[in-house]
Amino acid sequence: PTLRIDVVSIFPEYLTPLRAALLGRAIDRGIISVDVHDLRDWTHDVHRGVDDSPYGGGPGMVMKPEVWGPCLDDVCPDDALLVVPTPAGVPFTQSMAEDLSRERHLVFACGRYEGIDQRVVDDAATRTRVLEVSIGDFVLIGGEVATIAMVEATVRLIDGVLGNAASHQQDSFSDGLLEGPSYTRPEVWRGLAVPAVLRSGDHAKIEKWRHEESLQRTRSRRPDLLPADEPGQPD
Ligand code: ADE
C-alpha cells in the first residue's frame, strides 16, 4: 500500500467506520492498509487493566505505561509517524493532513481524554517522530473519533482514493477561505432559484462570483481566516 495505518484502542469496534465507504474501497484496492489493535492484548494481569489513578491526585484515570510501552514497541516501528490524539495537542489542519498523506506509515494511539502517562510519548519520541494532535477545542471521551476524522482527511488526499483527482484542489482551506454554496438541478426548487450567474455560461463571471461568496461566508463565519488586509478581521 501507499500508506499503512495502524490504530491502537481499547474500543477497536469503534474504528469500524474506517473500513466503510470510500476508505473501505481504498483498502480493497490496496491503496491503503488499516489494522486496528486492541490495547488489552498487551495486558498481563487477569483484569486486563489499562489505567490507574493519577499521581498528584485529581479526577479520572491515566493509562498505564507498562501496557502502552510494549504495545508501541510492537506496533510502531522507528520509521513510522506516531500520532497521539489529545485535546492538549497541536491543532490538526488541512496542511497537517497534506503532510500525513505523504507518509508511508502512520500509527494512531487512542487514549482516553485524561491521557496516557506522558512517559509513553517521551519514550517513543527517543526513537520515532511523535505528534500530539487535537482536532478542535472540545473534549471527546477518547481519541477514536479524532482518529477517524484525521484518517479520513488524510486518505482522501492520496491519489486514486477520490473519484475526481482535481476535486480536492478546490476545497475549503486549500485557498485559505471557506467554500461558498453549491447547487444542482432542478433550477427552481420549492420556489427557490439557483443563482442566475451559475447558469450564464460566463466562466470568468462565475469564478468572480464564487470568490465573492467565499469571502462573504468567511467574513461572517470565520473572520479569523481572513488575511490581515481584508475587512472583517477581528481586532
Ligand atoms: N481526545 C479527546 N478530545 C480530543 C480532541 N479534541 N482532539 C483529539 N483527541 C481528543
UniProtKB/TrEMBL annotation:
Positions of the tRNA methyltransferase TRMD/TRM10-type domain: 3-226
Principal subcellular localization: cytoplasm
Compartment annotation: Cytoplasm
Residues that hold S-adenosyl-L-methionine according to the record: G111, I135, G136, D137, F138, V139, L140
Class in the EC hierarchy, top level: transferase
The keyword rRNA processing belongs to this UniProt entry's keyword annotation: no
Biased composition (Basic and acidic residues): 209-224
Keywords: Cytoplasm, Methyltransferase, S-adenosyl-L-methionine, Transferase, tRNA processing
Region (Disordered): 209-235
Catalysed reactions listed for this entry: guanosine(37) in tRNA + S-adenosyl-L-methionine = N(1)-methylguanosine(37) in tRNA + S-adenosyl-L-homocysteine + H(+)
EC number(s) reported in the record: 2.1.1.228
UniProt-listed CDD domains: TrmD-like
Pfam families linked to this entry: tRNA_m1G_MT
Subunit structure: Homodimer.
Entry similarity comment: Belongs to the RNA methyltransferase TrmD family.
NCBIfam families: PRK00026.1, trmD
Biological role: Specifically methylates guanosine-37 in various tRNAs.
Name of protein: tRNA (guanine-N(1)-)-methyltransferase
Gene (name only): trmD
